[in-house]
Design a protein that fits this description.
The structure holds two protein chains of two kinds. Chain A is α/β, with parallel strands linked by helices. Chain A contains nine helices and 16 strands. In chain A, strand 8, helix 3 and strand 9 form a beta-alpha-beta unit. Chain A is globular and about 55 Å long. The two termini of chain A are 15 Å apart. In chain B, 35% of the residues lie in helices and 17% in strands. Chain B is built from 17 helices and 14 strands. In chain B, the strands form three sheets. Chain B has a five-stranded parallel sheet with strand order 3-2-1-4-14. Chain B has a five-stranded parallel sheet with strand order 5-13-6-7-8. In chain B, strands 9, 10, 11 and 12 form a four-stranded antiparallel sheet that branches. In chain B, helix 14 links the parallel strand 7 and strand 8. In chain B, helix 5 packs antiparallel against helix 7, helix 8 packs parallel to helix 17 and helix 12 packs across helix 13. The chains are: A alpha/beta, B alpha/beta.
Chain lengths: 284, 431
């Protein structure tokens, strides 16, 4: 069992919640860009989540979760001191930071929870990092203090203009490029369509762009192929070949369709937990 | 009934059946004990060389091994060796040992790490633990058993049996650490630093192969590994489990090995009305165990042999609507000795299906090879290991099973685990 050491919401709307989990084996090796898979209990599904931080000495791993699906909502019903059945990792390849001097990191919504540890990891290595963190509105902004402390320049945008600069993160990134900023690479994490828009934009500027993918996964070790996607015409597995890929080579339309396969089952499961158990599992 | 069947054994002077067994079970001896009604002694004889008899009795391709070599089979039916083994193991499981649980040997202080808890790892761990070695198994999944729990369905190998075989290993002192991905969480070098004196890699085959034809990423196309893992390991077919599974009404399974048969029969049980096995060679070349093919046929799985998929077709929402195949004919024997299938030009047609399961094999998982310096790989990405000792190019590191050979059978993996256990004993004795 893996104990929840602490839990806190990251914004006023509580759309993103941070969990610190006791997992010494994972903490020892975790690198930015990697993920874990957790399972609540015997009945639970295996759910991949990016590693936000790891403390080798305390043996803890931090994850940030958006409680929108069946499993993440049930996780959110647990409190510090409770335990979950499984927490395995680190999985996937760490972010490649070699040879980079200046990078623009673009995050969208909860994607900022994934982008931030990578941005900070780069900055810790002495890489100059401009981060554009986009949110829909002020009440869902997360990690502002952490991001401000962890990168060179932070730009917050909101779609509705309720905080930071009004507009999309893509627009701000373009403005930075138009202003003559030179980047070795753009790193981008967020909703699939947003990442696609960033990639379309950076293509025009000829800047290499890395995206972090989060497709449906099962085992997370390369065994099932559920997370496969087409990159540069080749089939790749996000869990072992990724999760980060060259965004200019990714087949975006294929990814969007594949991620919807179990949408009906997920919806039925959500109705089920709300209606029957009020969110708490009755058996087991 | 078992006694009557056992009495058919001629107790040959040179038992051909034993030559056919990858773990060299002393077949005539155990069969003789069954004939005498001494099932305890029969069990002791089997387990002196085979640590997982209840499993082998169910999943071995006996027709190519022991039963295939049985003299009785030349005229008529061979002795039902597999079923007898299964009977003895099940009898023992239900009745226990006459004299109580077998004694646990005193520890010899040597620490060995085993990576993977599938048939190769369990066998290697079992053999070493029975000799007093201090064995720790690292398993990437949340449950021990490897392919025995994620791959082979309940209807063919009840999971309670696997759990009991694993509990027996734990009785001998084997420690099992689940949720531990070696190659990521810890490297093999770190295992040595922690005090392990030898490491056995039995990490299995891993990556599912795809056909590389158009339409393979459409909605409703799965690897057999995915379908079987959802069903067997995650128990997605039971309503109280959260993992989703969705299979259509008309399913094409591409491939014709044991995994393909398991996938086809699982699809039937998940509610598919029509299930096709699509295979580019003929019935004669079918690689699955005869018994599995027979079961699949009984369950009305339709065999579309000499049909090679060329494209998977989808609708405007990218959902699978059919699989286009080309008819094949058999030409000259190829490198594998089987007659090579050749496409008949212009014979393409579409089978209407809403799901396609790809079951054409797996390639070795690169995780350990890429994180262990000095470990040599084969051209196909397997780990190079000696047939005689399981030794790899790194001193103290041994390997066996699908991680070495690519996808093969449970019993071959067990044989390799056994060989490596002996190899490790020798290595540690001479170190």
């Amino acid at each position: 069992m893996f104990k929840i050491v602490s839990k806190r919401p990251l914004n006023e709307a509580k759309t993103v919640v941070e969990f610190v989990i006791e997992a010494p084996l994972v903490a020892r090796k975790a690198r930015p860009g990697q993920f874990i898979i957790f399972r609540l209990d015997e009945y639970g599904e295996r759910v991949p989540v990016t590693i936000a931080a790891a403390d080798t000495e305390k043996g803890t791993v931090t994850i940030m979760v958006q409680p929108v699906g069946q499993t993440t909502r049930m996780l959110n019903l647990l409190e510090a001191g409770d335990s979950i059945a499984d927490f395995v990792g680190p999985l996937g390849r760490p972010t490649n930071m070699e040879g980079l001097k200046r990078v623009c990191v673009v995050g969208g919504g909860v994607g900022n929870a994934i982008a931030y540890p990578v941005a900070k990891g780069m900055h810790d290595l002495g890489i100059e990092v401009d981060m554009v963190a986009g949110f829909r509105s002020k009440d869902i902004v997360i990690l502002e203090d952490e991001m401000r402390a962890g990168v060179t320049n932070l730009y917050i945008t909101t779609d509705d203009g309720s905080y930071g600069e009004a507009g999309f993160n893509v627009t701000k990134m373009k403005a930075l490029l138009d202003a003559g900023n030179q980047y070795d690479e753009v790193m981008c994490v967020g909703p699939t369509r947003m990442m696609q828009r960033v990639c379309d934009a950076t293509k025009e500027y000829g800047i290499k762009t890395i995206v972090s993918m989060n497709p449906i996964m099962l085992d997370g070790t390369g065994m099932c192929g559920a997370c496969r996607l087409t990159v540069g015409g080749e089939t790749k597995f996000a869990c072992v070949d990724g999760p980060e890929f060259d965004g200019h080579l990714v087949d975006w339309d294929g990814i969007i369709k594949r991620s919807t396969y179990y949408a009906d089952e997920e919806k039925a499961a959500m109705d089920h937990i709300c209606r029957i158990t009020g969110g708490v599992r009755e058996h087991g | 009934m078992a006694i009557d069947e056992a009495k058919r054994c001629l107790n040959c002077k040179r038992p051909a059946c034993m030559e056919g067994c990858p773990v060299a079970v002393r077949i005539p001896e155990f069969v003789a004990k069954v004939a005498e009604g001494d099932f305890d002694e029969a069990y002791r004889i089997i387990t002196s060389t085979n640590s997982l008899p209840a499993i082998c009795g169910r999943v071995c391709p006996q027709e190519n091994q022991c039963e295939g070599k049985c003299v009785r089979g030349i005229k008529g039916e061979p002795v039902g060796i597999g079923r007898l083994e299964r009977f003895v193991a099940d009898y023992h499981m239900n009745h226990g040992h006459k004299d109580g649980a077998p004694a646990v040997p005193a520890g010899n202080g040597h620490k060995v790490a085993v990576i993977g808890s599938g048939p190769a790892g369990l066998t290697c761990a079992g053999d070493l633990a029975r000799k007093g070695y201090d064995v720790t198994i690292y398993e990437a999944f949340h449950k021990a058993g490897g392919v025995l729990v994620y791959g082979i369905p309940e209807f063919r190998l009840p999971k309670a049996i696997v759990a009991k075989e694993i509990a027996k290993l734990e009785h001998f002192g084997v420690k099992i650490i689940t949720d531990a991905v070696i190659g990521r969480a810890e490297s093999i070098d770190e295992l040595f630093e922690e005090g392990f004196e030898a490491v056995f890699i039995g990490s299995g085959a891993g990556l599912p192969q795809f056909l590389h034809i158009p339409g393979e990423n459409l909605l409703g196309v799965f690897s057999a590994n995915e379908l079987l893992t959802r069903s067997n390991l995650m128990k997605a077919y039971l309503p109280e489990y959260d993992t989703p599974i969705r299979i259509g009404k008309r399913v094409a399974v591409v491939g014709a090995g044991n995994v393909a048969m398991d996938a086809a029969r699982t699809a039937k049980r998940l509610g598919a009305d029509e299930v096709y096995i699509v295979y580019r060679r003929g019935m004669e070349e079918l690689p699955a165990r005869k018994e599995e093919v027979h079961h699949a046929q009984e369950e009305e799985v339709i065999f579309k042999v000499l049909n090679n998929p060329v494209e998977i077709i989808g609708d405007e929402n990218d959902k699978v609507t059919g699989i286009k195949v080309v008819k094949m004919e058999l030409g000259e024997p190829d490198a594998s000795g089987r007659r090579k299938p050749v496409a008949i030009e212009g014979s393409e047609y579409v089978i209407d299906v809403d799901s396609v399961i790809i079951a054409i094999g797996t390639s070795p998982n690169p995780l350990i090879l890429t994180t262990t310096p000095g470990l040599e790989a084969t051209k196909k990405g397997g780990i190079v290991a000696s047939d005689e000792t399981g030794a790899t190019s790194r001193p103290g590191v041994f390997a066996g099973g699908d991680a070495v050979t690519g996808a093969a059978t449970v019993i071959k993996a067990m044989g390799a685990g056994k060989v490596a256990a002996a190899g490790i004993v020798d290595y540690l004795a001479n170190k």
